[in-house]
Design a protein that fits this description.
Two copies of one chain form a homodimer. Chain A is α/β, with parallel strands linked by helices. Among the domains of chain A are: 64 residues, Arc Repressor Mutant, subunit A (Orthogonal Bundle); 243 residues, Aspartate Aminotransferase, domain 2, CATH 3.40.640. In chain A, strand 1 and strand 2 form a beta hairpin. In chain A, helix 13 packs across helix 15. In chain A, 41% of the residues lie in helices and 13% in strands. The longest helix of chain A has 26 residues. Chain A is globular. At the A-B interface, helix 4, helix 5, helix 7, helix 8 and helix 11 of A face helix 4, helix 5, helix 7, helix 8 and helix 11 of B.
């Protein structure tokens, strides 16, 4: 038996024994090559063989997935969303805040949390740096941190982009209090109260918050669960109503986890450029890819300074420090002004602590560990939901990040399910949070899989599954 | 010679020898009683004697001051401002930011800085607390700091008000990124873009920034340099145009340093209550009083929840941590919502570090030292300006804080003076920053006296004095 045949047989065995489930992503060619110490060609041959045998299938831009086989539990694919293209006022923050709070109040299992497992973070290491910085600068002067932010942190952020294959101008970077502030300032720089903003459907509520904060309106655009926002649908909306800006999450979108292809990213930027419409790109999960390489950004396709790219360290390094940034293209000076007006400066020591960490510590090593853990946990969570949730449940196929988007039967009310689960000290993210339409994603939930898989989590999934019929009453 | 006569003679000697200058405030009865270990009655008798001899004079709510005597250099009193009551758009932030930056770029003597001397702060002590906190909570979860903020810090803030004689409801407190964010959120909670906000004249530009951020308009109200906003003038403006809110700094206003009397505070709150107009109170200098006791707040006179009180630790404990708060009265829930939308949470470790400091360390001792230093430096700076600046210069009589407001001859342009001084690596605060009217305070400058008096500072005052005629050309 040749090497590639041996590998193919091994993978087929994992599928037959149920270790790999239908619909699950298998490790990439490069990952398998590294783990098995085989050449890329050998692995590719094995995958082609498995594909020809109908064991796996390749999906463009996504990788290889286990094919559906008779008799096995199957996670059905989500469909493209088809929201009505009518703009609406946004008023979602009260629901989001109370959902987040319930995690704290009940000390509940945080499957509804938007934050990664804090035990993954190097908080102590960062605080050692913070302490060293404070010792070196006992009389820190806030004037040194006026917008755009601490120069050393800005240099490190620019270097990080370069390491990820993107050249950015450090002079464009504005440091902010988390990506939240970055997104807020960017939106305020490009649109005014009452304007309409085009968003994905479902939308990450952080985007909706920014719209709500400014008293703007949102219109949801049809979005494919694996390919992202429908550029043709957006074009139609632009033709029919004035759109002041667009807000998207092209990589590992919360909640669907898709990664837009380079072609689609380019097409989106070209469409918006033709209409001179700025686009705010939320890239907070970019570093948490499961594939072989860092995904491209919309900004990389921008020729006219219309992409306002936002990101942070809150999903990859520390939620406690609240350090984000914006690369606002041609709106840089306006964003800097609004930063100054909004919070004056970003706290100094957190900026310097992160700068020191980036300079001296193993950020790459840390990220590799996170990516590997999240990729594995994505498979396990998907498999568990597929196994335990009622037939007809549909799930996303995240290619990065740490959340799974789950569509339940139409009669299930996610808010009822959320409340039932809370009584069992389990939180889920109700679908209502992801839309401006009152019942937009009524029968969807978001599950966080950043925590290491445990008996407790598995039991929680079983419990949620058991509660689903109850949450359907009167639906 | 009786004890009080001896004390009176001593003070008279200080006046005659020029140690105490005309117009300068002398230590309060209580301070003198403490320093000289004399009874309050003895000191009072000495002061009455000096007053009867025409050496000092008492001013209501302000204390005792050295009287003008022939032949001595005299600092003339500022007059009540008389701005035209026409609202205007606000666009002052670019000037303020470039002024602040120039301090950094030129490493200039920061007489133009709005921040206190950072060497007064216990940054290392705070960072030790931060480090200890981080060690105790290695897996800090951001969910614990959702608005309204860290519970322990909130408890400490409420306790601090109690220690200062004011009972506040801890459930009303919202922790923010500095007072800047607190003021912004409060303004956003009570008014909308295009609305007109009544402000003091001159106005602290932090207030103007909040108005500019929201695209609102400002109308300046006549303000007395020692007594504060003219309540009758404000009443007239309210009768003539719709006023959505009022923003004031009743204690140690930046730049004039006045403290409104309790009667005037009460009258202001009553007027606004009659018209159901909310008032945002900026109290960041409240702890930096030179008198015997903590000043009262507008909030203490509020019966209807219309006072939105804002403050921070940035002027008293640390500029680096950027921790402020709001007590937004009946607008509490709206402010909390906007906090969540604006920056999600306030960084955790800085909140906890300050909470630990307040619990365990000598905040009162630290504040007493600051107050004493600032009160002394106020006298020295006033004396130096009086001595060296051209005749006709008028100065404020700050009763707290650390800035002096200086009116130069009408033909002096403060922007020209600012630029000339910058060539000598000295900054001053140009009067233009304190008004929405283009030439509102053209011939005024603000001087920071928080730094310990030194030959360098004295030389800088001499240099500025020398540049003043040059700054008058073409004026």
């Amino acid at each position: 038996m040749k090497l590639y045949e041996k590998l193919a047989a091994e993978i087929e065995g994992l599928v037959e024994s149920g270790v790999l489930l239908a619909g699950e992503r298998i490790p990439s060619v490069r990952q398998t090559s590294q783990h098995h110490k085989l050449s890329i060609t050998t692995v590719l041959r094995a995958y082609v063989l498995l594909e020809s045998k109908g064991v796996i299938e390749s999906r463009p831009q996504s990788g290889y997935f286990v094919r559906r086989r008779t008799g096995q539990p199957v996670a059905t694919e989500l469909q493209t969303s088809r929201p009505t293209p009518v703009s609406a006022e946004v008023d979602v923050s009260a629901l989001v805040l109370s959902t987040l709070r319930s995690i704290r109040v009940n000390d509940a299992l945080p499957l509804g949390s938007p934050y990664p497992d804090p035990s993954l973070f190097a908080l102590q290491r960062l605080n050692q740096y913070g302490n060293a910085v404070a010792r070196r600068h006992p009389y820190w002067n806030v004037i040194d941190d006026l917008p755009p932010g601490n120069p050393e942190l800005i240099r490190q952020i620019a270097r990080r982009y370069l390491e990820n294959g993107q050249s950015v101008d450090p002079n464009e970077i504005i440091v902010t209090v988390g990506a939240t502030e970055a997104i807020n300032l960017c939106l305020q720089a490009v649109a005014k109260p009452g304007d309409t903003i085009a968003v994905e459907s479902p939308t990450f509520y952080a985007m909706l918050h920014a719209i709500e904060r400014m008293g703007m309106r949102a219109v949801e655009v049809s979005t494919h669960p694996r390919e992202g926002i429908d550029v043709a649908a957006l074009a139609k909306i632009i033709d029919e109503q004035p759109i002041a800006a667009c807000m998207v999450m092209p990589n590992f979108q919360n909640p669907m986890g898709f990664q837009m292809s380079d072609d689609r990213k380019r097409a989106l930027v070209e469409l918006l450029t033709r209409h001179d419409i700025p686009v705010i790109e939320n890239g907070v999960y970019n570093e948490l890819y499961y594939g072989d390489s860092h995904p491209s950004t919309l900004k990389a396709f921008d020729t006219r300074g219309l992409v306002l790219h936002c990101s942070s360290f809150s999903k990859t390094l520390t939620t406690a420090h609240r350090i984000g940034w914006a690369l606002p293209g041609r709106y840089r000076d306006r964003v800097e002004k609004f930063k100054f007006l909004n919070t004056l400066t970003t706290p100094s020591i957190p900026q310097l602590a992160i700068a020191e960490y980036l300079k001296n510590d193993g950020y790459d090593h840390h990220l590799r560990k996170m990516r590997k853990a999240f990729a594995q946990q994505a498979s396990i969570m998907s498999a568990a939901v597929t196994r335990f949730f009622p037939e007809g449940t549909k799930i996303s196929h995240p290619l990065g990040g740490y959340v799974l988007w789950v569509e339940l039967a139409p009669e299930v009310d996610s808010m009822t399910l959320y409340q039932l689960a809370l009584e069992h000290r389990i939180t889920v993210g109700p679908g209502y949070m992801f839309s401006v339409r009152k019942h937009g994603y009524r029968n969807f939930i978001r599950l966080n899989y950043s925590y290491p898989w445990s008996k407790d989590i598995e039991q929680a999934i079983v419990t949620i599954a058991r509660l689903i019929p109850e949450a359907s009453r009167g639906g």
